[in-house]
Amino acid sequence: MSRLSQSGFTLVELMLAMALFSVIMIVSTTGFIAINRTYTRGAIKKQLNGSIRNLESDVSATLRNPQSNPTYCKHDTAAPPDCADSPFNMNCISGARYFWKSVDGISGNSGLYRDSGSCSGSSFVTPNIDSAVRLVDERFVVEKFTITPLQNYLFQVTGVLRTVDGSAQTLTDNLGSIKPSEQTPPVTQIDPFKIKCKGSSAGSIVQSCAVQSFDFIINSRAISS
Prior knowledge:
Number of helices: 2
Number of domains: 1
Radius of gyration: 26 Å
Shape: elongated
């Protein structure tokens, strides 16, 4: 009787197959991660733009009857001098008070809120997040928000919003890059319009990073007519 023929894969063939399978898995995983990162950042960017549109609409409604010039209070500089002592940055105009946490280490909620309080004077009451209208989600930090009166009933509204995780962003000043371990100087040294998300090489933290600036003009007379 003849011996039954035996056939199969050699060790070299098995190693080649495993190597090819590993390459395919690596390429597929890398592509999936890149697609997921792009989708996540796109979704966050959309939410951020929605917050800016919500803020623009609210400020426009406030300026329908501009009764006073804006009073901007920055808690760590107390300018102008009559600003009340508060852990919030505040912008008051026409009976509305916009307030948000400072970005220099004050603990607590992020986001931006509006109530009808005052920024200064004997009638000042510390802002209460729970009873205020939330305009920007707590997942975002307000780096800058100003309302500047121009001529002919015009107001310029500028600002910068970013995601909370500062380790995913690069902060810069006029001298160049500020390392994460050096992000504790006064906020005045940082140009908020130069904040950017780090590249993908920085790791998974960049996946949820988004920074958006805004600069628009509101014609209060046109709104009220």
